[in-house]
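Hello forum,

I keep getting stuck at the same step: I have a sequence, I want structure tokens, and every attempt I make locally crashes halfway through. Rather than fight my setup again tonight, could one of you with a working pipeline run this one for me? It's a single chain of 270 residues.
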Amino acid sequence: MKRKFKLYILAILMIATLFVGCGTKETSSDVDRSLEEMKEKGDFILGLDDSFPPMGFRSENGQVVGFDIDLAKEVAKRMDVELKIQPIDWDAKVLNLNNEDIDLIWNGLTVTEERKKQIDFSKPYIESRQIIIVNSGSNINTKQDLADKIVAVQLESTGQYALYEDEKTVKSLKEVRKFSNFTEALLDLKAERVDAVIIDEIVGRYYMTKRPGVYKIAEEDFGKDAYAIGFRKGDQSFLEEVDKILDEMRADGTTAKISKKWFDEDIVTK
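Reply #2:
Ran it on my machine without issues. Output:
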């Protein structure tokens, strides 16, 4: 009886070890699975706010174009897969990524400590600032000048986070008004329904070139930041592949060529 009991326990331990081994093998392959499956299905899906020029936006004929789009097209070409573009609500970007509705977020996405807890990032490829844009006739030049004013931000944007980190400025404001995109925020600024917009410098300057003389940039800003591509936690092989290709594009001058197309200069981080 004792011998049978010992054999029974041994059998259970062997089965348990087998399952643990299988689980370990499955976990270790998770890192490679996303890249291999992506290549097998032949595409990757890029999520973006399609009203964020010049990074990604709708052209006059309705096509999604932009600096980030051109970079992504070249990466997909070198990976030998198709690029699929999926407009999303920017405030739901992390949810869309983790639900696998998209494969990456590539749209002037700022690296923050809070986002690092939720997603992984590529190497930064552009540096920017969170600037204050006001109407050309405004006397707002500093954060102090924003006291008792209505300030606009894009919902769940870096500008919103940067503003709320400055508690002194936030407490001095009359109101913080949140918009789904910067196009609406800047139209409200032009119409004087808000007094200032906090926006990424690259995007803000692009808008200003389209409406010369309408806006100006205040002297103070809400700090520097960096753009990178957002990936799901665990998609390490996919992330490393994209980083590797972008490094190759920097080395052979492709990123510089794309940058000059959109900014008249090479602004890509080396």
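Confidence is low (pLDDT under 50) at residues 1-10, 12-31. If your local run keeps crashing, start a new thread with the error log.
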